[in-house]
């Protein structure tokens, strides 16, 4: 069947409901914009995977015609300055079609368009471009980067279609370079991935979970691993509380004895915050040692520090005012808050440490605490944080530790005035050195970088963002990596068991254990990718659900 309005609507509704991704990608970070080719490639990868899963989508051509491109700004990749007969978006689709078919010359594309006038109408072509026009457009109008994107996107479309059982006009190249001339399959099918993931998950679980202990003494009838099994089980079910989960767990587990809900809660409540954090750091250390066996793991580089909060707390918080605190948005709501430090950038995004946030905790204390843990586990070069950590004392501490940083700055009167001047002059970027007062005639030297966001909804000085850094401005491009911690939080919260308890330790344990499950997932994905392809790409090929299901299987749940 041909794609219909309803089938297209179904595809994009499914994409909108994905909790672990932001689409389109350019909206996920202030450092991406509508001209970013890497964002375009990521978007096509996501849409193609969902599109070809639909039963009505049986060929590649309709996808080439329908893939969303209206938001993409091709001007930055158009080497022609004057008026032209064909829009860049239309030409992009034409060359995408050519690449999907593997035609070496434009003549084949011209013949195909001539034989398919319906496609020309759908692409808005009043006439078929001649061969010389297409040749000049590709060789003289498209930049080399845009040509690479066409080839990358076409390969992605063919692989995603073939993986979904859709017929393709040519066999896609599934080989990627590895160690010189060696090659290996880069996009293995789902069954191969699952088979490999099962083996890897067993090894990773055996590494991470032994770090956790309830210290119950000897002679207990219920094995301690049953408690971690139950906690993992809660993470597999959305909004599943421990009492109901324990009852279901009895039937789904292959263990002879499993803990009851109240017993599970009681043992977890006996754990102090420091005990939980110590066990978590030990588990992550063991996990890092395991993934460090691969040369693709970067045990150094960039970390992001951030604070997340639970759902707004609507009950009576009397006696818990220091733990159930105001939200970050300064509303009249209250919530539990947790802080984490996570590897980002080229490294596998493992959460290195987590801690609760209490009333009275300063941002400097939080950053120092988490950095101490991070630097004990990996070598840290750069630190990324959001504007709630905009403090000269935090920045000075980072510099004293020999670390680079990028932090957005809250716009005060002077920054607003500068942004207005830049807007009046039509400048998109501006750098200036600034000294921030530390007190007692001491100062911290930093660089302010003003950056204008092209697709901003604002028309005044609010189009500009201001960043602070103590290194060259090129480091600013790395700030986009900080958004990985935001997307990570979405998955982490999915892995948390539900509870209405006000017990602070229990609440934190649920969050920390979810961070561990997330880190296990990303570690398993890295190991599977390396074993199957010889490389590591940041986009997971092993799903979170598959990993947790395998963890469930390996830890004793039937």
From TrEMBL:
It holds the Pfam family DUF772. This is Transposase. One of its GO terms (biological process) is DNA transposition. Residues 365-501 form the Transposase IS4-like domain. Residues 164-191 are annotated as: Disordered. Transmembrane segments: none annotated. Residues 170-186 have a biased composition (Basic and acidic residues). GO terms for molecular function: DNA binding; transposase activity. Coiled coil: none annotated. Residues 65-136 form the Transposase InsH N-terminal domain. The lineage of its organism: Archaea, Methanobacteriati, Methanobacteriota, Stenosarchaea group, Halobacteria.
